[in-house]
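User: Fold this; tokens only.

Assistant: Input:
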Amino acid sequence: MADRRRMQLWLLDAVLGFLEEHPRFVRTLLRPAAVAPWLGPRLMVLPRAFLGATAFEIHDVNLHSGRIGIGGVEEILTGSKLIHLLHTTLASRVGEAEKDRALYELGESLCRWEVSQALEHGRWAPAALAPLILGGRILDEVRTDPLTARFFVRTLRMMSRLITDEGGWGHLEFDVSSLPLRVTLSNSQEARWLGPSSGPVCRFYAGIVAGYAGTLAGEPMRAREVACRAAGHPACVFEVERAEGR
């Protein structure tokens, strides 16, 4: 079983690497199929995205019910001003410290729900792919096995492209070789609305990072912002580690 899993991982990583290195091939030959009405909707979210479809092309819109979703996960599109209003309105009701805790928990819970919904509906990735992405030992594996690390980062990059880049949240980069794991966010909406500041302000996004990382890793994770664009840094940086003892 281990040899079979390793072969699957190697083949998938080779295919994803080829697609990343040949964007013109993807745009010219694969993307037309990924967005074709006769084929695209039959494909799962991640394979369709790797073939060149954007989040906007993958979303399902039900005009009758007024609902929008992607891969079985319902969404609501809203203005980025909501981020600012969450901070200011909560702070006026419960104070800064409690506001920060509430926003972190809100982001974490939201992302745990989104990932669990994606897995439950089985439309984000083929059944054979999910165990290669998820697992309680994934953090240990990515630090000891370059193949697993490379595949995991490729998958994270595509998921973040769909959710954060094309969702208007900013751009994420992952360093799974560092300890703690480091996630860099360029163009944070929280930093944009709440800066300039003397320290980190991205409480909601810290919870989002923790929620996604913990669900994908199969164990509770804690994210802490150690650099913030609102405080004058080039980008926002989060350190992510296991949450034992928090």
